[in-house]
Amino acid sequence: MKKAVVSIIVLSLLALAGCELFPTISWEDIKGEWDFPDTEFNDSTITAIHLSLMDPGEGETEYRIDLSWNNFDNFYYGEGTMSGNIFNGHYQVGGGDDTEYPISVTFSLSDDNKLRAVFDGEGPLDGLILEHGTLSPVG
Fold first, then answer.
1. Rounded distance, CA 103 to CA 123, Å?
2. What is the largest CA-CA distance in the chain?
3. Is residue 121 part of a domain?
4. From its phi and psi, is residue 123 left (phi > 0), alpha (psi between -120 and 50) or beta?
5. Does 100 map to a domain?
6. Is 16 within a domain?
7. pLDDT tens-digit profile of 82-96?
8. Residue pLDDT, tens place only, 92-134
9. Gap between the Cα atoms of 108 and 75, Å rounded
């Protein structure tokens, strides 16, 4: 009986060793155009949420993010670096405000390829959590 229990434990450990408890994602996994369902943020509902994750422009080294909601009534754009699944950089509010705010965005993908983005930093995006994002069809 002891041998059977030990065998089950060893097989379980071997099976777990082959699985990642915290799967890693790369920029290639998340870049593109993402749409999110309505979300509660700062005591209101934001709608028509769209997040663009773009490669650096030609001759540039920083990745780009654009975020809008409520049919572009709110628009934010930024640049920064990627380390694993974390974007670190700065962003500005669209519409002429030149103030830059530091931001860190942690991305994760669920098993069914739904994107989650957690914004941590300063300014109007601090504390925003977007969940259940779907990749927009290209074309």
1. 9
2. 73
3. yes
4. left
5. yes
6. no
7. 999 999 999 999 977
8. 999 777 899 999 999 999 999 999 999 999 999 999 999 999 9
9. 22
The structure tokens listed for 122 are 């300063």
Type of residue at 117: A
DSSP notation for the chain: -HHHHHHHHHHHHHHHHTS-SS----HHHH-EEEEE--EEETTEEE-SEEEEEEPPPTT---EEEEEEETTTTEEEEEEEEEETTEEEEEEEETTT---EEEEEEEEEE-TT--EEEEEEESGGGTT-EEEEEEEPPP-
6 found inside a domain: no
Range(s) of the domain holding residue 96: 25-135
CATH classification of the domain holding 98: 2.40.128.20
Q: How far apart are CA 58 and CA 22, in angstroms?
A: 33
Two tokens, residue 14: 């071997």
> For the purposes of burial, counting CB atoms within 10 Å of the CB of 124, is it exposed (0-12), middle (13-18) or buried (19 or more)?
middle
Instruction: Show the tokens assigned to 125.
Output: 């995006």
Domain count, the chain: 1
